[in-house]
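lol ok so funny story. i was supposed to be doing the assay writeup but got distracted and ended up predicting the structure for this chain instead. priorities right. anyway since i did it might as well share w the group, maybe its usefull for someone
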Amino acid sequence: MTELKNTSANLSSGASPPIADTRAIKQIRAIVLLNRAGIYFVVVLLLIIGGIVAPGKYFTIANIRATIQAISLLGMVTVGMAFVTYSANYADMSAPMTIAFSGMISIATLWLGFWPSVICGILAGSALGLITGLMIGKFRAHPIIWTMAFNFVMSGIVRWIWSGTQIYPDVIAKNNAQAVELFYAISRSSFLGIPIMVIVMVLLFVAGYFLLAHTKFGNQLKVTGSNYEVARLSGINVVKLIVLVYVINAVCCSVAGIFLASISKTGAYSNGDGYDFRAVTSVLLGGMTLAGGTGSMSGVFGGVITIGMLSNIMNLIGIPTFNQWLVQGIVFLFIVWLNTNSARKLGRG
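and the output, tada:
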């Protein structure tokens, strides 16, 4: 009552009301702008830097084509990872073995024919996603701990099945040369001058955008990612939703795994190494938050382009691979810090 009387007295005496501090509001608006469009400012900046540090090389058709093709595999994996992060399950650390396992299964069944081998590879990877989805969605296993442990388990299983050795399409399917040639060709062929891998990546991004932005599934996933308990109490089948998220992620990883096996002409347990880390970095760079429920596929696509351009610039100026990992690690740590800080300022931390 005393505060109300003082406020009334101030107003009646003509005193100006206290000025609201707008700094927090401006900070939140800046964060929202950064999450929505900031990544494409980074893309433009990298274009300028690339032209400066590697004149005569960076803007050549050959380099642009090589860069786009190089990020296509990362893009495929990142589409699936975006669904996991959007659902507030952080990241799928079993992505490397899903990539490797699907590629090896595809090669191991290549004697059946090209398309049966592709289907077998995708189904094998999807089965891993289904297991992970059930453990996390139904039994509430911790996403990071479970997927890391599952990745180690699958690594052991794969090494045991194939005795720790690599497998080769032309050896497995030596009596089906046509299937082998088709398997090799999918990562080296183009349609209207555009590499098949790039087309597949774009189609996955378009499908991911449609699912998140224009379907009931996307709306429910946004609610679940924003607040799990609210989603559950509002009648959303959160278990089914999370299982679907991990199956979608596994399908994307499987497709990337088959292309990767085609590029290397080899099935190996190490084929997917590093893709989990780079995919998460791309997702966070694109504006999605570890808290879940925010971000878009268009932003994530920008994150993939950024990682690809950064790697390309480092290659052109001769930075060794180990030093590139250091740079990417620093970028990842900075983005996680920025992501967490942004979430706290937006009331999500």
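The first strand starts at residue 190 and ends at 191. The radius of gyration is 24 Å.
back to the writeup now i swear
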